[in-house]
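Each lists sequence, tokenised fold; shown next:
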Amino acid sequence: MMATSGSRLPVVLLWHMHQPQYRDALTGQYVLPWTYLHAIKDYTDMAAHLEGNSSGRAVVNFSPILIEQIQEISRRVTEHLCSGAPLPDPVVSRSNLQMRTGCMATLAATKMFCPGDRTGGSESEADIRLTHDDSGVYLTAMNGALLSQPDLPRGDCRDAYPKEKRIRIDGLGPGDDICLHTHDRHWTHAFFTDVISPASDQIVFWQITRKR
């Protein structure tokens, strides 16, 4: 129905959260990290937006299987912190990394280092290097690591087949992501958090690395 001039058009903001069951019924391990990942990042961010806007209104819906997974992951993370029980998701590392041009990163160790640094990083254990030339900004894979092209078809790494040794990343930003096979054969999902311009001499991204 079209709103007439000067009238108000009611709008309902609906956030519908749903994930399939990712837990392997035989092993009890989560085979994909998306419930855990969204719970520590997106779901809490959305609640914070509502808390920060006293006049904001939204309808929030969680599917039952998603609620069950969040509750189980919360319980098992608490058990891990209290008694050292194994985590339900084989996460190797997660971090927010800032890389400068010429610098490298070892993702499983969440280590970023640059040539000449005294941080103890070694090129032989690096997964990626940030490079910049007249044509743009690039990520270059190192030591057998491989990169996917940006903008994954399903928004995660399930259908990604990293095979690139170098990808151009200027023009990317929030909402863009890539997958990597690290040099030590783990999976990394990286999310760009700042806009990357052709003149950028550094990038910021959030990454989660899991056992294959």
